[in-house]
Amino acid sequence: METIPVQRAEATRIMHLGPGAFFRAHMADYSQKALAEDPSMGIAAVSMRSTAVVDALRERDCIYSLSELHADGLRTRPIGVIREAVALARDRERVMRLAVDPGLSIISMTVTEKGYSLDPATGALDLDQSDIRHDLANRDNPVTVAGLLTAILSARRHAGLDWPTVMSLDNLRGNGQLLKSAIIRFAREIDGELADAIERDLACPSSMVDRITPATTGADRQAIARQLGWMDHAAVVTEPFSQWVIEDRFDGARPAWDRHGALITGDVEPFENAKLRLVNAPHSSLAWLGLLRGHETVAESMADNTIRTFIEALLKEEMIPATAVPAGLDPHAHVDSVIERFANPAIRHRVAQIAMDSSQKIAQRLVPALEWHLREGRVPRLLCRAVAAWIAVWQRGLASPDPMTAELASRVSARPQETARAFLDMRSIFGERIGADAAVRAAVCAEITRI
Ligand code: CS2
Question: Based on the number of CB atoms within 10 Å of its own CB, is 177 exposed (0-12), middle (13-18) or buried (19 or more)?
Fold first, then answer.
């Protein structure tokens, strides 16, 4: 690859928080292509916590390889849109210097659901969370997204600089508005005027992102090294499919992502709903069932007829009716293509990875559809089975890391039905309606004994 020329960015106009595999396979890919229209739209990648990805990127001056897994093998190309990589934990000063560059146009982020420090059910910033409390007490030393962005917006305001557009690329409904509300709530605690200005002036487009990107494994890196002739520690492997729908709400310049497959539109919500309910909800469900049935990957789980039949029924019988899809999208054809993507054996996506942080995902992925069915006057059995599968994962000691581990583990008891009731009591996951509904409680209890 060193002999393959890669276009480098000529300036840094974007700061991206969270340069994990998903960002490197998705936004960075679109941004690389958009350098053709504007080579000034380079990215500074900032890692909020880890230093490993920063070190890996720096090995080759932030050039890395992106490999798509096609039926005929890996197709690898270089990405050079990242101009520098910085770890907040190590070089906070550099991050703040980048943040007050007058040319900065966008701050984007992929920090996963838990990275926003929200109460999962209400979507509001959780002021009691220990990291948020830390940031309120140490305003010059923030470790959270809300704390860092507030510090950046405040610094730019004092320097008389415009604010960049601030954009979330995580799987959260109305992610732009959620992020904006979180920043306002944090800022309100320290400076009411700043909070008002953010409310009035900050542009936070929502977006829907979709590209299945498993964590890169040692075996992936070896296979790519054989192609490249060198070991790329920042290599990413992803599926050929990619989708990005962005709300048309930018303040200032942005790359021509729309010339390279992204859709910029006035209304992202139907796309977000379709993504969360028809891709992420079955993904989580099959991750839990896969764990329970001893499978390692999504594709292995999909090769298990019991799971595949369940996932197809869940999608067709309970998720499609509960989802208002974007105009022009045939939901049945869409669901068939999602099932095909999951079944692709070339993608070794570990179910334990998808099952991570499930407490932060359920309110996004399952609860809205559950509520829809209750409003329609019926109890959705299959959704209740999916919830029961999540609880059974805890019951059987198979759970993946989760920010609510202490709380969840304390609710596990010897009897599965008791565990189920204790889990359903958690308003911060299931909201006010679902966990309190007697018919849902009975259905989840019945399902957990069947699983
Ligand atoms: C997955 C998603 O890990 C997870 O929770 O459901 O990361 C999923 O692979 C992507 O959203 C697909 O676009």
Answer: middle
Contact of 95 with 155, CB cutoff 8 Å = no
Please state, in angstroms and rounded to a whole number, the distance separating the CA atoms of residues 110 and 172. Answer: 11
Q: Which residue has the tokens 């992610």?
A: 175
How is residue 324 annotated by DSSP? -
172, 204 Cβ separation under 8 angstroms? no
**Rounded to an integer, what distance in angstroms lies between the CA atom of residue 194 and that of residue 184?**
8
CB 106 within 8 A of CB 45: no
| Least confident residue range of 24-33, 149-158, 177-186, 224-233 | 224-233
Substitution site in 212, 351, 362 for ligand 1 pocket (most atoms within 8 Å of beta carbon) = 212
Which DSSP string do the residues of 113-176 spell out, in sequence order?
A: GGGG-B-TTT--B-TTSHHHHHHHH-TTS--SHHHHHHHHHHHHHHTTPPPPEEEE-SS-TTHH
| Amino acid 4: pLDDT | 64
Are the CB atoms for 124 and 179 separated by under 8 Å? no
Cβ neighbours, 10 Å, residue 240: 14
CA–CA separation, 60 and 406 (whole Å): 40
CB 141 within 8 Å of CB 120: no
Q: How remote is the CA of residue 112 from the centroid of ligand 1, in Å?
A: 10
What pLDDT is attached to residue 328?
A: 94
Give the residue whose CA is nearest to atom 10 of ligand 1: 212
Q: How many CA atoms lie within 13 A of 170 on its CB side?
A: 28
Number of neighbours of residue 269 by Cβ within 10 angstroms: 15
Task: Specify the residue with its C-alpha closest to ligand 1, atom 9.
Answer: 212
Q: What is the pLDDT of residues 234-272, one digit of tens each?
A: 999 999 999 999 999 999 999 999 999 999 999 999 999
- DSSP 3-state of 13: strand
Task: State pLDDT tens for residues 342-359.
Answer: 999 989 999 999 999 999
Q: How far is CA 94 from the centre of its chain?
A: 26
- Are 324 and 375 in contact, with CB atoms under 8 Å apart? no
Amino acid at 161: L
Task: Classify residue 357 as left (phi > 0), alpha (psi -120 to 50) or beta.
Answer: left
User: Phi and psi dihedrals of 400, rounded to 5?
Assistant: -85, 165
